[in-house]
Amino acid sequence: MPCKQTTCAEPPCTGALFHSTLITMLEHPLRNATGKLLLGPGIVIFLGALLWVSGHPRWGGPGLTWDEAYYYPAFRDASQWVVNLFQSPGTALSQDGIGAGWAEINELPPVTKWLGAATFLLPGDGWNRLAALRVFPALLFSATLWLLWRCAAQLVPRRWAWLPPALYASHPVVTGHAQLAASETVFCAVTALVLWIVLQRPERSIRHSMLLAVALGLALATKVNGLILCVAVVGVLVGGRLLARRGMGGWLRHEAVALAMLLASPLVALAIWPWMWPAVGERLAGYWRFIAEHSHQGTWFAGSRWNFGGPPAPIYYPLAMAHLATPVALLVVFWVGATTVATRALRRLRLPRRELALLLFLLGPICASSLPSSPKYDGVRLFLPMFVPAV
């Protein structure tokens, strides 16, 4: 039987030609890679701008928090040091030069100072300066949402990966902190980054192990609570192998590499902390003295005054405040999910590594805050990163 004639004297339909060209463009590997590369930053910038606009100064000003007023001179001095570094590197890197730029509130770790200094390089004054200071926290909050989506995509079907960042953004205290130029939102973003890297199994990749060292270094250079993240990561690496019943063989090729990178994280923190450079040992000891002697601010809780001028806040203060500050709907979702995971683990007599990571990243901040010697005040601020894995 002869074949059907396939040639046609008429030109192809314009609509069909456009459709085939569009499909070819979308399926081109380079364009796909570019789209994926730009999608994350685009989402971060859009959500960050949206959050920043929602808290933009209006009606004569947005109000000023204690941290913003307290850190303002330190941000200003650090920004001037950056200018001096480009104009006269030798003078800026001298001990006197570093002291001029970083001595003000020298116990404040450098990441928050770097971000504050960067905003001082932007034009503006008065309330516009305060608005500029709040740009980076807003962007980092949206970066946290994006990282939560990336983490959730590894734990649940992708069609449900939007739910954890939506729950996180719906927490009023978390979103409120994202509109302030302070270190809490910055540390939450670093926590989400470390959690995402841990879920990538960094012990299986040198690249992810190096990224883990950088992320933990940023955590240590943001708040002293970065030590809690280091302990959680060690728990995941060691506990994950034990729970998988694989023993301790093969460490030289796997977990040992990641742990070695973890030990390198303090070097990353010191490398971006100019205040430490002239006298690392002496100034690091001074930083630890400040942490040990940090005053416990007075607070009202359960009808009584605690800490300053009263007895120390009870050890159950963080757990109680975590429940009181969280909307009931979010609490229900959390406890239903936690109960489901616990029931599954008990039934199988095994806790998967991913659930172990979430558990340690959740319990670490609130358990550390519950220690008798730990400061307990300001509601959930001191253990705010626990809401990153909680969702």
What would your notes on this structure say?
The radius of gyration is 25 Å and the shape is globular. Residues 1-15 and 21-35 have low confidence and may be disordered. Helix content is 65%, strand content 2%. The protein has helices at 14-27, 29-54, 66-87, 89-92, 95-102, 110-120, 127-133, 135-152, 163-169, 172-177, 184-199, 206-220, 226-243, 255-263, 265-271, 280-293, 317-324, 328-348, 353-370, 387-390; strands spanning 299-301, 304-306. The chain is built from 20 helices and 2 strands. The protein starts with 13 loop residues before the first helix and ends with a helix. Strands 1-2 form a two-stranded antiparallel sheet. It is mostly helical and 391 residues long. β1 (299-301) and β2 (304-306) form a beta hairpin.
Topology at a glance:
Elements: H1 14-27, H2 29-54, H3 66-87, H4 89-92, H5 95-102, H6 110-120, H7 127-133, H8 135-152, H9 163-169, H10 172-177, H11 184-199, H12 206-220, H13 226-243, H14 255-263, H15 265-271, H16 280-293, E1 299-301, E2 304-306, H17 317-324, H18 328-348, H19 353-370, H20 387-390
Antiparallel strand pairs: 1-2
Helix pairs in contact: 2-8, 3-5, 3-6, 8-9, 8-11, 11-12, 11-13, 11-19, 12-13, 12-14, 12-15, 13-14, 13-19
